Amino acid sequence: MTGVEQTAGRAAGAGPVLLGVRHHGPGSARAVRSALEEVRPRVVLIEGPPEADALIPLAADEEMRPPVALLAHAVDEPGHSAFWPLAEFSPEWIALQWALEHHVPARFIDLPATHTLAWGRQDDEVATEGERPPPAGTAPDGDTGPGPAGLRIDPLGVLADAAGYDDPERWWEDVVEHRGAGEGDALAPFTALEEAMGALRETYGSGGHDRDRVREAYMRLQVRAAQREFEDGVAVVCGAWHVPALRQKTTVAADRALLKGLPKVRTDMTWVPWTHRRLARTSGYGAGIDSPGWYGHLFSAPDRPVERWLTKVAGLLRAEDRIVSSAHVIEAVRLAETLAAMRGRPLPGLSETTDAVRAVMCEGSDVPLALIRDRLVVGDELGEVPPSAPAVPLQRDLTRLQRRLRLKPEALERELELDLRKENDAARSRLLHRLRLLGIAWGEPAASRGSTGTFRETWRLRWEPELSVRVAEAGVWGTTVLSAATAKAEADAVGAEGLAGVTGLAERCLLAELPDALPTVMRVLADRAALDTDAAHLAQALPALVRSLRYGDVRGTDTAALAEVAAGLAERVFVGLPPACAGLDADAAEEMRGHVDAVHGAVALLGDAPAAGHGQLRGRWQSVLRVLSGRDTVPGVIRGRAVRLLLDDGQLAQDEAALLMGLVLSPGTPPADAAAWIEGFVGGGSGGGMLLVHDERLLGLVDAWLTGVPAEAFTDVLPLLRRTFSAYEPGVRRTLGELVRRGPGTGGGATAAGTATPGFAADFDTERADAVLPVVRLLLGLDDMDDNTEDNNLAGVTG
């Protein structure tokens, strides 16, 4: 039977009209619309989970805007989920819209999600790394199928190869996207595609892939049921790969036998927003298309798609301050059409327009093309779902908060600056921190620009479709964001393994303003701190705990209890740190130096906290630093850092620091130990380079020591010194290099031999210092003040 005879037979009532499509194909979508207009079926059957039948009326809601997706998740395990995405140019979406507009029943006929999710759970349990199948409901189903020996083939790739194309996308554009829909027989393209898929199924079969066979058996049963109800007025929209199987003559008993004993799981289903970026294969999903933005343009452009597309490209480039004129657009259109003619294509496709843009608008550069692909070819379109769509209570509360705080979910990443002194910004911060605690990573903290205070926060926001699943998962903790975050924090505190984890959680509770969770967290924290005797663990936990105190003033949180726990933890650190620093190897010493730095900063904050109640904490810590700086059993890197911290706090005179450095750099100290001491004193990115620049006595000591290191020990010392000095800013390194190149001076204004500029010396150059005093007096206005004083005194005498 020829294709024309098959079409005529179906139109005359020989069976259901099978419209095989490519998912997310605008050409298929236009063809489906034309076919439905011609056939006028009494019911439309669509490939998709039948649990979504109750959600079909929402597709007609004015607030529903694709791209959207059907989301199914297991009730008892919300993280186990599957998506069925639909774009404006998806044939399934067009079929839904046609049915709703013409008041024709529409039904989904694929295997129910209750079985699909149960299958997916089994896969998760047995799959090994690298063998995990794609998520259920996201396979391009209809676009791929199993080949011999379990090998999955790409039907479009096989057909494109047979037609002499090396790119399946280009072949599909030529034979489907660039042909007019509705010209002549509206069913002709589906007949041709069915014949092609039939030939492929005869050659490759199903490869023993039971799941496709089971799905197709279920779809055949649904088609039969619709035929009994509506007789011959049945139209089916499904993946083209399935059409030969649905046309296959089988018995009801055989199909039911394939469905017997399928695993089940209780599921919920709803609509969720989707994005063009998630429709692209590059997002990690098995389903989709390489260029959803381009396909959306082809579907929506009423005429002259190439001219309209290149105009969009020109607008984007102009917005990025590139010089693109109307003449560029005209020339790019001509070039694209010429390339299409040379390549034997009916119309310019994405490859021709891209080549034309590169040559005409981008001057041969691929850099702007990356922006065009990201913004236009793929795109950041984010769909919308009406509030009436089913949702877990937590999702409804989140939506309410988003609207009240004017935080609209967006697919394009953006930065949000918050001033926590403002009520609305503080509420936004609380929401984002609570969501992070729940594992809903809508926003990630970023470094603030222009302020390091606690009253300002910077967030990077980007809404991903998967976050809807995370919201459903978090729904087990509560019905509101506040209650769920509180319950999750309490559970995390009880289940935390280490002390540092609990202290970090306390900080997050303060940031998220969860006062009801803090008592539980503090109780667990006190218990863990009392049982942990490892000084390194205590030192690691203290900074996060003390940082939390900084948020008390700006957020209005009572941190008195937290300060008491922190002060007690600090006392235990003071006692346990000196013995813990003895006898460490190089790696352990470097790690412990980081703990010493962190504890030093924490003590500074804790000593300023009015609720701490321990005014002597700084004094106690400085005593610990003195102990560390003088014990020979403590590694040099820690001793050097202790001396430096005491010097920075004004607890050690410059002469005393120079004396300690001189002792360490004496010939009796092994060079490797001396280098480690220097690294602790001036390394670690703590401003040590500037210290050497401004305190030339210390630089002279280091220089004299380094020039006296024996040749056999120099290769051991060099890596430590390189690591120390490489951390300095380029300007600091350059200044130090200039000083060292000039060599040591003699002080008092003397210059190094052969140079016009003094080098470095142990004493200050008073003559050079005196030379700048007139300029300083002028800048400060001291000369004017002296003149006024003299005038006033003179007036007083004459008066």
User: Numbering strands along the chain, what is their spatial order in the largest sheet?
Assistant: 1-8-2-5
End-to-end C-alpha gap: 128 Å
Unreliable segments of 5+ consecutive residues? 1-13, 125-150, 282-286, 609-614, 746-756, 793-799
- The amount of helix comes to 55-70%
Tell me the fraction of residues in β-strands, as a range: 5-15%
- Which class do the helix and strand fractions yield? alpha/beta
Oligomeric assembly: single chain
Average pLDDT confidence is 80
Number of strands: 12
The global form is: elongated
> Over all CA atoms, what is the radius of gyration?
37 Å
Put simply, the count of helices is 37
Report the sheet with the most strands, covering strand number, pairing sense and barrel closure.
4 strands, parallel
Organism: Streptomyces iakyrus
InterPro entries: DUF5682, LolB
Region (Disordered): 125-153
Pfam families: DUF5682 (PF18934)
